[in-house]
Amino acid sequence: MKSLMPLAALALCLQPAPAFAREAYDAGAAVDAELGRTSRVARQIWENAELGYLEEKSSSFLQNEIKAEGFSIKSGVAGIPTAFIAEWGTGGPVIGVLAEFDALPGITQSDKATRDPIDTKHAGHACGHNLFGAGSLTAAIVLKRWLEATGTPGRIRLYGTPAEEGGSGKVYMTRAGLFDDADFVLDWHPSDSNAAPSLSTLANRSAKFRFHGISSHASAAPEKGRSALDGVEAMNMMVNMMREHTSMDTRIHYVITEGGSAPNVVPDFAEVFYYVRHSDPDEVRALWPRLEAAAKGAAMGTGTKVDWEVIHGNNPTRPVPSLQQKMSAILQGMGGITYNAQEKAWAETLRASLGEKAPPFAKAGQVEPYRVKTSYGSTDVGDVSSAVPTVSVRTATWVPGTAAHSWQAVAASGMSIGFKGANHAAKAMALMGVELYSNPELRAQAKAEFKQALGPNYKYQSLLGDREPPLDYRK
Description:
Alpha-Beta Plaits; hydrolase; signal; 2 domains; six-stranded mixed β-sheet; 15 helices; Aminopeptidase; four-stranded antiparallel β-sheet; dipeptidase activity; alpha/beta; 14 strands; Amidohydrolase
């Protein structure tokens, strides 16, 4: 019998931590205690306001913060200098937390509640990714401390994911297999409300079509010129006619990024940037040759030449109902967000810019019921959710009625209303992480649902093909 004692003792040590030990570390309270850090990190990234693949300061800042907590760091993963993975722990389950930190070009704003562009900046956090990065950092740190305090086996990862805005950073990370050994991924996004629906997004692909012509004097020698802008405009005309003959879920939009410098010079270069979206990635693939054919036809008809570069492409998100329902229940238990007197006054001032139909700011104190819905936006989280079961949440980081990609979103993302929303998301993710580490039945159910949704013959395919990350797409 004595020879069996060491094995028995070892087996006892390997048992999951008892419930009382897990409850001794309150992950929700721990997130609240980190509000100062969350606010500081969110504000610093907001000040940086760096564009996709150029987020050197923000990426380095996040890495330094989490390295100080004992995480190991892998930098420059998937061939992207600003992408990283931070990890702590041993054994399993392996739970990842996504962190974004890129800004949007051409929209700037101070943290005032009235329009106040900052002329010295060229970008702003109009989608709140400064909050995204800060809230996810806090969630990862708290989950590390929970694992440590409770003795629960498992690994926690923070994925630093650049260039969500049109750069598809997560697609390259997925394609490189960086999520293959993760069991679950936690995700969130800033919003003007609190909700955790089973949300499906649209697949999309984008490209820059570049037309090359012959310059000449537009009045003295027009016959010698071939206008690259004519090529762009001819392509746009044909694509706009094509819209009549696409399915209802199709979304096509474009912007002319370069069209010439002076009316009296026939432009020898012009560029148009296109997005194509649909709920079914195969439909995006089917639509794409039609877009390319329009470009070729436009070039032929205008005597120009055309080439194109695919910039990004995302698969639709694949929600896992059991995970989303659990996240929704956690959010319902937490309740909404309460403004103090100063925040109420700020919100009332900003609300005047949102129009008469804007909801009252008290909506931030509510949580929407669980539901299944479709978004007509797109995100590279879709590719992550095609590789690993992913659960998402949205919190009211902006005054209710605020649209993403607006100056109002930039303003709230840089002050306490945004910081509170990021804290709320961090708490929801931390509590969800505790649930996943502690609940083997939920893990098994979620993985079964995920496997069934993919189907027996599913094989991951990115909409980017084999192209390398476009590290200069924002330059």
